[in-house]
């Protein structure tokens, strides 16, 4: 799909679209251009009825997204900071509020705004080399793109505070253990779609003591390391596509309604959530696919 964009690519794969942030020279950090193009990409895939599931990932083998652009932030005043945070938040909100499911394929560092980008996705699947964190406090700011709000709802207040207060990076394995990612794709797993979930966290590193991991990631710059990293990236995307196909085979109306009910249900009390659920559920009876799927089930039972 030619979108004429510099920093964001849209790759259609049948009824699945991959949106790739393409600024590897800055580890896919989001400057104003990236934010504007991401917004446009979301609009394009959002209105395309042929696309049922969206996968968001980063270009290269090292980073999903290293967050907000520190080179831009270093010299801005509070007025510009407010504008920058608002424009990024509105794009992230747009992703969260998309009717169709969105999967984050976390192919490397997901830090600060990069972690917050992953948080607005419905499902997070990480490469086992990924490192995730909210390091904002290490550069003098709190998370500003939803990290203080969404992280707590996903991992609970204790873990959210641990991550935000320390600014440390955690491994994909640890992120899986605390429910921050749904699945970890391991390099030595032979095929996509196999159960790639992993065991207990093996290490937990602070940003300041992360050099050894950084060195490990740098080893992907050697020719052999680069091939391995490319293979892993491909496997991660294959795994996400496999996951997306588990969704696209279902009723897209029911999936969209479920997403809306889960998102809105978290903002209201349980009684209001249950009432909303009744309305959403009942409205699905207006769709033809519901009747067809129920009929298919019943007729299969008679064979
Ligand atoms: N912004 C701009 N450039 C970046 C960023 C970033 N977030 N991250 C990396 N880069 C650049 C580096 O400057 C470097 O550029 P160059 O080659 O020109 O020197 C290039 O990417 C490669 O990075 P490194 O050389 O640092 O790579 P390493 O492998 O040594 O380290 C790390 C990788 C650990 C990921 C390291 O780059 C790092 O710590 N990056 C910063 C991560 C971070 O702190 N992110 C949070 C930013 S704040 C944020 O996201 C807040 C969002 C809400 C803000 C709302 C306020 C208005």
Give the total of domains: 2
**Helicity level, as a percent range?**
40-55%
If you compute it from the alpha carbons, what radius of gyration comes out, rounded to the nearest whole angstrom? Answer: 20 Å
Q: Any idea what the CATH architecture of the largest domain is?
A: Alpha-Beta Complex
Strand content: 5-15%
**Mean of the pLDDT scores?**
86
Q: List each distinct ligand once.
A: octanoyl-coenzyme A
Distance between the termini: 43 Å
- Stretches where pLDDT is under 50 for at least 5 consecutive residues are 193-221
DSSP summary: helix tally: 12
- Could you say what the CATH topology of the largest domain is called? 2-enoyl-CoA Hydratase, Chain A, domain 1
**Main pleated sheet:** 6 strands, mixed
Counted beta strands: 11
Helix and strand string, N-terminal first?
Answer: EEHEEHHEEHEEHHEHEEHHHHH
CATH superfamily of the largest domain: 2-enoyl-CoA Hydratase, Chain A, domain 1
Helix/strand structural class: alpha/beta
CATH class of the largest domain: Alpha Beta
Q: Please list the strands of the largest sheet in the order they lie side by side.
A: 1-2-3-5-7-10
Shape: globular
How would you characterize this protein structure?
- It contains twelve helices and eleven strands.
- With 303 residues, it is α/β, with parallel strands linked by helices.
- The chain has two domains: 8-248, 2-enoyl-CoA Hydratase, Chain A, domain 1; 252-302, Lyase 2-enoyl-coa Hydratase, Chain  A, domain 2 (Orthogonal Bundle).
- It has a six-stranded mixed sheet, sandwiched between helices. Strands 4-6-8-9-11 form a five-stranded mixed sheet.
- The longest helix has 26 residues, at 223-248.
- The N and C termini lie far apart (43 Å).
- Octanoyl-coenzyme A is lined by residues 26-27, 29, 66-71, 81, 84-85, 109, 111-113, 135-136, 139, 141, 144-145, 210, 214, 217.
